[in-house]
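Notes, Module 5: Reading structure tokens.

Key idea: the token line is not a picture. It is a compressed description, and you learn to read it the same way you learned to read a sequence, by spotting repeated patterns. We will look at two proteins. The first is printed below with its tokens.
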Amino acid sequence: MSIVKSPARRRRAPEIRRQNPEAVRQDILTVATAEFAENGFSGARVDEIAARTRTSKRMIYYYFGDKEGLFVAVLEAAYARIREIESGLDLAGLPPMEAMRRLAEFTFTYQNDNPDFVRLVMVENIHRGSHLARSAKIQALNVSVLQTLRETYERGVADGVFRPGLDIIDIHMTMSALAFFNVSNRSTFSLIFKHNMGSRTALTRRRQAVAETVLGYLRR
């Protein structure tokens, strides 16, 4: 005896077959990144993300578990992207001073071109890192930038162009902080001091200043 499929089942099956699970997951992450960056963790709405991805809240939870799981995945993807691009800078093929300049300028440019990354980090700091604490990947993702800094710095010390005794975390913090401020404080600083921090001229001048500040800190 043949089994007759219900109309609902006949409608769902082709849809499921057409779906690319990884494409669906990436689409959700892209939309969720913008939603969390704009509204913070507390203000972001999974229903809104579902509507903008033409999927369902149930599907989002299928991929990410819950809202916190989705936010963790967004943070992991954001850090993975910047680290992946950093790894392609080929700093090992450059003299130490030039390599550090390139990394400082890249950090500044990337954060200004990707303000959602800065906003996501700010959101997570408001929550005292509680979501990143759930991530098994986040520390591993950020090992690469410290290793790159360490190798470049040690080459510079060996060549006599960098002063010895500096801490790699301090170097990374200085570089990141100088780049971060231009995005995190742009609205307030621009209004208070009547200074357009987002103009091409201002960004070029500030990028150079950030690089020179970092190199001045490192120079022997």
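Here is the second protein, with the sequence above and the tokens below, as before.
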Amino acid sequence: MNALSPHDADGQSDREFFRNMYRLEHSVVAREVERNVLGHEVGLNGYTTVEQAQQICDALALSVGDRLLDLGAGRGWPGRLIAESSGCSLMSTDTPLQALKDAKEYVAGLDANVVAADGRALPFEAELFDAVSHADVFC
């Protein structure tokens, strides 16, 4: 049992916990809180604000033709903002299938792909990406 994980106490692994979290529908009130506190609405799958996501984008300094790997992308935030702001292509990865389904809809219209992959065993060749981001990822 991991001392930092409260989920193991009830017999539920962290992975199971997050799979179940992504299956929950979010209320109108929860989405309003997310908009007011974080400045966006993607289903409360993280705590990265719009300002913090923009700082990540600025630090990465990506542009058209660059490729970003977003590890633990959840529903696609903040990878979408980074891809929209920079014009780079986006590869979003995570393991909860519901999160990836939501992410696919969320990044529709961008040069983006969504892949079910665990960060410990990625199915990509070396040096394929120009940058990697991971916000609100529990390791």
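Summary for the second protein:
- The domain at 8-133 is CATH 3.40.50.150 (Rossmann fold).
- The radius of gyration is 15 Å.
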